[in-house]
Amino acid sequence: MLGFCFVFAAIALAGLPPLSGFVAKLWLLDASYGAEVAWVFWPIYLLASLATLVALSRAGTSLFWHDHPNQDEQFEDNVYAGKRRTWALVLILAVPLMMTVFAAPLSEMSNQAAAALHNSQVAIDTVFALAKEQ
């Protein structure tokens, strides 16, 4: 169970399909496509993603597949994580899956937040309106 959760988290973190990291990666690459510095951004971003995947693969194989000489002594008391910890891990790993399922509403909310941040006059008017109320 722990190995499966590690693989799922590694896939989400590395931005592999079909999870939300892949959708975000595509949006970033698409947004930078017409920019003058796209030829610098694309290789750096894709190589960083590849490096993340390689690092997580190496960490996973050394953690789960290599034989540790003192493993029995070291993990004697922690054989079972417990139901609460297992459910907490499953709930944490459900977040990237839910972000993939609800990508359109999250994208719209992010676009609205970015538009509000770029329109500074609305923020100024809101602050002054709140100050007048007090």
Terminus-to-terminus distance: 55 Å
What share of the residues lie within helices?
A: over 70%
- Give the low-pLDDT segments: none
Radius of gyration: 22 Å
Number of helices: 7
The total count of strands amounts to 0
Sum up the overall morphology in one term. Answer: extended
In the residues, how many domains can be counted?
A: 2
Please write out the topology:
Layout (H helix, E strand, L loop, with lengths): L1 H13 L5 H12 L6 H27 L6 H4 L8 H19 L1 H16 L1 H14 L1
Description:
The chain is an all-alpha fold. The chain has 2 domains: 2-101, no CATH class; 103-134, no CATH class. The chain is built from 7 helices and no strands. The longest helix is centred in the middle third of the chain and has 27 residues, at 38-64. The chain is extended and about 70 Å long. The N and C termini lie far apart (55 Å).
Q: What is the gist of this entry?
A:
The chain is an all-alpha fold and 134 residues long. It folds into two domains: 2-101, no CATH class; 103-134, no CATH class. The chain contains seven helices and no strands.
What key phrases describe this protein's structure?
134 residues; mainly alpha; 78% helix; extended
